[in-house]
Design goal:
Helix content: 25-40%
Oligomer: single chain
Structural class: alpha/beta
Low-confidence stretches: none
Number of helices: 14
Shape: globular
Number of strands: 16
Number of domains: 3
Distance between the termini: 46 Å
Radius of gyration: 25 Å
């Protein structure tokens, strides 16, 4: 049952007399346990709602347009608690976090509902057959953290005795018409090389309902005392991984007309290889996994620069970035300076002392490292940062310092920009 927190005035539920504090038990005879049940069963035009009010069972009939919302809200987005991850993966980034950070940063979700609704990745280990049946019935396309299709290795990597047997759900879902995006966190000497080949072969056998596969390198922080001994990819290892992935791209293109599997940008940079052109990434299906993100940024910035105008006079600003994106950001800054001689844009590469130097992505840069490494520098009138450094819809960094804290320490205005080339150029030339 769902406890109703509020009912929107004038909504179908409000009109028939459903009120705050009521319990929603059933819709058209189907038990309602969470937001997925609510969204699925409330989409029909004619509904019979069973409501519990002060222990009494009440029935309400509602007629509405198909897919119109009933106007019911619960205490939580899911109308239920988030499902917590039951694994202890050897590569889990949360287990590599420093102590004494805010509590929410240590929560590991592994919730198929959030996968469908928000694109989160799930491991399948806390799902049962009834959950898979519901996914298939409701056609809930989801994202799966596969990592390996070797059952014994999956148990070892995820430290969950059920991790191997849950792989059977992949075939059940694809046979049932569910379309999956898959992720492989690749760890040297664990699930790389021949094991990666096995995983890509097995996932290829589930086609065509595998939409895409991202292969991303493991991230290793300095906080690994007592954890499984992991190493980062070196130049040769990254290059070999790209070669394996691209050999499977050729297989999949021949069979299915698309590449399907993609290495993240970090592999190309570590291997010191040129980033592929946009066509390589097809429709950027794994953009949020860092696949093609830099190529997209370059192309968008180049496109924006062609029609951009700047009449603001002399302007000196700086950008802060991680090691992975540093050369790209230098390239984009130079392009802007070449077009607008009045503009000076310095780029500062920030070493990640907070998590350790092996962490090179921009989104994990903290306020502490910005302050320590930029204090006393001639930053200019503004410091540009990526919005990925901040909590969503906030001005708070991972280390709980704020944009204002950094502005006060560096005596400069900070402006954040999303990871797209158009917004970046606008921020560089001061349009927004």
């Amino acid at each position: 049952m769902i406890k109703i927190k509020s009912v929107a005035t004038g909504s179908p539920a409000f009109i028939v007399g459903i009120r705050e504090g009521d319990l929603l038990a059933e819709i058209n005879g189907h038990e309602i346990k969470d937001v997925i049940d609510y969204m699925y069963y409330a989409s029909d035009e004619n509904l019979i709602l069973e409501i519990i009010r002060n222990g009494e069972k009440l029935t309400f009939s509602i007629e509405k347009d198909e897919y119109d919302d009933l106007g019911i809200e619960s205490d939580t987005f899911l109308m239920d608690k988030k499902q917590r991850c039951s694994n202890k993966c050897v590569f889990c980034f949360i287990d590599q976090m420093p102590p004494n950070m805010r509590e929410t940063l240590y929560f590991k979700d592994d919730d198929a509902r959030l996968s469908f609704l928000q694109g989160n990745y799930v491991t399948l280990t806390n799902l049962e057959q009834a959950d898979i049946d519901r996914i298939i019935e409701m056609k809930l396309n989801i994202n799966v953290s596969v990592h390996t299709t070797n059952p014994e290795l999956r148990v070892k990597m995820m430290k969950n005795k059920f991790a191997g047997e849950k792989l059977k759900y992949l075939k059940q879902m694809t046979d049932g018409g569910i379309r999956l995006n898959c992720q492989i966190v690749c760890c040297p000497d664990l699930n790389d090389d021949s094991e990666l080949e096995r995983t890509l072969t097995d996932l290829g056998n589930l086609m065509p309902n595998i939409d895409s596969i991202a292969v991303v390198p493991v991230g290793v922080t300095k906080y690994r005392e007592g954890l499984y001994p992991l190493t980062c990819f070196d130049k040769d290892g990254a290059g070999k991984t790209i070669d394996i992935i691209e050999s499977y791209q050729n297989i999949f293109r021949e069979k299915y007309g698309r590449r399907v599997v993609f290495p993240s940008d970090e592999f190309f940079i570590t291997a010191k290889r040129e980033l592929p052109e946009a066509e390589y990434y097809e429709d950027y299906p794994q953009y949020e996994n860092g696949v093609g993100m830099i190529r997209s940024l370059i192309d968008e910035f180049t496109d924006a620069l062609e029609s951009a105008e700047y009449t603001g006079g002399e302007r000196h600003i700086s950008m802060a970035t991680g090691y992975i994106a540093y050369e790209t950001m230098c390239r984009l800054a130079k392009m802007a300076e070449d077009k607008f001689p009045e503009l000076k844009c310095d780029v500062y590469r920030i070493r990640n002392d907070f998590f350790g130097e092996t962490i090179t992505v921009t989104g994990l840069i903290t306020a502490q490292d910005l302050i320590a490494q930029l204090k006393g520098k001639n930053i200019g009138s503004e410091l540009l940062i990526s919005s990925s450094m901040l909590m969503r819809d906030s001005e708070i960094f991972l280390d709980d310092l704020t944009v204002t804290d950094v502005e006060n320490e560096l005596n400069v205005k900070i402006r954040s920009t999303d990871n797209d080339g158009y917004g970046l150029l606008d921020t560089i030339i001061g349009i927004n």
